[in-house]
Fold this protein.
Amino acid sequence: DSGVTQTPKHLITATGQRVTLRCSPRSGDLSVYWYQQSLDQGLQFLIQYYNGEERAKGNILERFSAQQFPDLHSELNLSSLELGDSALYFCASSAGPHYEQYFGPGTRLTVT
Amino acid sequence: GIQVEQSPPDLILQEGANSTLRCNFSDSVNNLQWFHQNPWGQLINLFYIPSGTKQNGRLSATTVATERYSLLYISSSQTTDSGVYFCALGTNAGKSTFGDGTTLTVKP
């Protein structure tokens, strides 16, 4: 157990819908990262937050947004969902931007 | 952005064999990690190794940052070592990049 929690574990929704994925980092960690793992594109970095502020952006679509709250938990919002958004979404946390990352168990999203 | 290349893409071993996995990268990095993704999808930390050599039981890793590569050694492999091994790099800009992974299958 890495200490990073993600909810829900599984999510099945229809095209066009909007969902919110939640992540609680390890106690004391200030950085949160979101990743998408799909079969055809591997593990892709989406976005990083540090102590509530966006620090780095990767291959995140405009339909996706994220935030980190004052209690350091983070949410990833996915809207206007398409079939191609079906993937495993991971959250990771670290003490700071260049420290070791620890991954949560992931949320498996299926868009039908 | 930074390019990460892992080799070999697939590896099949007999239980008890040794193996070396390689990760080449195209630019200087702030951090480098090795992960094992097990058949249930969990990403398990193996090493945080931006430079130098570390060992943990049957596994060890070496990163030569000046030559832009890292190696993961697995000795006396076991069936539970099966899965996908990823290297992941972090740059000064804060972005993380994963390689495509090496899929290891250890046969009994």
Summary: The longest strand of chain B covers residues 83-90. The mean pLDDT of chain B is 95. The interface with chain A takes residues 30-31, 33, 35, 41-43, 45, 48, 86, 88, 90, 93-98, 100-101 of chain B (CB under 8 Å). The two ends of chain B are 40 Å apart (CA to CA).
